[in-house]
Amino acid sequence: MYLHIGNQINIRERDIIGIFDADRTTTSWITRKYLSEAQKKELVSAANDEIPKSFVLYRDRRDGRLKIYFSQLSTSALFGRMNSFGGEDGCAPGK
Q1: Cβ-contact 72, 94 below 8 angstroms
Q2: Which CA distances in Å does 88 have to 53, 68, 77, 80, 82?
Q3: What is the pTM of this model?
């Protein structure tokens, strides 16, 4: 299964490491540093030009590197999309 994160961007669910709330997680200096280093290495993309509400950390199947996609969709919307189709493991977040 694939997760549509906005603007016709799809990520294979089994490649997703985590889905994070952009407002809550970027208050941590360590997260900001990680995102900054990833951006310098050109591992960060955005689904569109809107202010992001979440980001998805995933393993790119082409090169095996961890990459980040920012999305204008909230974490609850992304989890809802995963669970509306049963998801790969069929469970809700936090279970």
Answers
A1: no
A2: 24, 20, 17, 13, 8
A3: 0.83
Quote the CA–CA distance of 7 and 72 in Å, as a whole number.
9
The single residue listed with the structure tokens 């952009």 is 22
Tokens for 18, please give them.
């985590």
Residues 92, 76: contact at Cβ < 8 Å? no
Phi/psi at 62 (nearest 5 deg)?
Answer: -75, -45
10 Å Cβ neighbour count for 89? Answer: 11
Our CA angle for 65, 55, 68, nearest 5°, is 15
One digit per residue, the tens of pLDDT, for the chain of length 95 reads 899 998 899 999 999 999 999 999 989 999 999 999 999 999 999 988 889 999 999 999 999 999 999 999 999 999 999 887 655 554 444 43
